[in-house]
Design brief:
Blueprint (H helix, E strand, L loop, with lengths): L2 E2 L4 E10 L8 E9 L9 E7 L13 E6 L2 E10 L14 E7 L3 E2 L1
Antiparallel strand pairs: 1-8, 2-3, 2-7, 3-4, 4-5, 5-6, 6-7
Length: 109
Amino acid sequence: MTLETNLPIIVTIRGAWIGDVSDPARAFAGVVNTSDLGALRSGDAVKVVYQSSGSRIPGAGEHGRYALSAAGREWPLMRFGAHASTGGTRQDESLESNWIAEVLPAKIG
């Protein structure tokens, strides 16, 4: 039997996006503030990228995902977004700010 954890695994990161929005190599680089993930600690350098099929216009069945990486490991993300305290207005994503990554729960067993 395979079990899934139901608790969210949250990693808060201080960082900024590097690269143009249309650049496939664009990445978010930052440092962990807090982490529910045992493999990451406050101060660890991390990177988040959006992974997709590579086509400019994906088909209806194609979806990309965000992935968090650090120290040679990678975790798929359920969500990645600016921290709620940054306000409701659009901000310059190239400026450092707080972001929240919700790690996809791992299957156990």
